[in-house]
Amino acid sequence: MQMIAGNWKMHGAVADIAPYAQAVRAxxxxxxxxxxxxxxxxxxxxxxxxGSAISLGAQDCHAAPSGAHTGDIAAALLYEVGAHFVILxxxxxxxxxxxxxxxxxxxxxxxxxxxxxxIICVGETEAERDAGxxxxxxxxxxxxSLPEGFTGMVAYEPVWAIGTGRIPAEAExxxxxxxxxxxxxxxxxxxxxxxxxxxxxxxxxxxxxxxLSVPEVGGALVGGASLKAEDLLAIADAAPGV
Length: 242
Ligand code: 13P
Fold this sequence. Notes:
There is one protein chain. By secondary structure, the chain is α/β, with parallel strands linked by helices. It has 11 helices and 8 strands. Strands 1-2-3-4-5-6-7-8 form an 8-stranded parallel beta barrel, surrounded by 6 helices. Strand 7 (197-200), helix 10 (205-212) and strand 8 (219-222) form a beta-alpha-beta unit. It is globular, with a radius of gyration of 17 Å. The protein starts with a strand and ends with a helix. It binds 1,3-dihydroxyacetonephosphate (13P). The site of 1,3-dihydroxyacetonephosphate has 14 residues, from strand 8.
């Protein structure tokens, strides 16, 4: 079964929760559906989705269990208010907050200790792809962002495809996902063979069917199109059957 995950980024308001939750609860799903709203919306979202099969995730956590870290959020608190997943190492965090792969790995350790499943993002910039470095960059990010004993998921998000409407060719996605699969089995052993690898970057209802059928694509991490429940559900509908 594939996973379709919506990353709301810094969008959304309390008033959006009820209609969104009502729409996704009413859907017949053949995928795992995950919503990652801004952290302050998690408690009310958890109430609105209670008893459904739809999961909630956060968009970041701190590497320490608690402490003097003004503005940061502990993984255990995210879990307590209803998140079971956390996106880590998104390119917007690597860029806006200078997060290194080592920091991402430390956060992933904290997430696992708190019971959160991490979705670790990797992906090259356009300049790196143009320079023929895409696979090397992603291999390096993977090698340094995943902690020992990692049991979560990876999302391949080419930076140049995020929010741009541009997507890699299916063959490029297939090649990168094969590279990531090889990295996962190398780093995580047999567990790496079954880990989901999501694709993210301009996934829309119109291109989802093709993207989700690429070999080794285990689902999608959706930004802009996840803000409308009907679009996220159309993407979920486009996933291949089990
Ligand atoms: P878009 O779907 O808006 O391109 O964003 C992708 C993304 O960054 C998801 O994490």
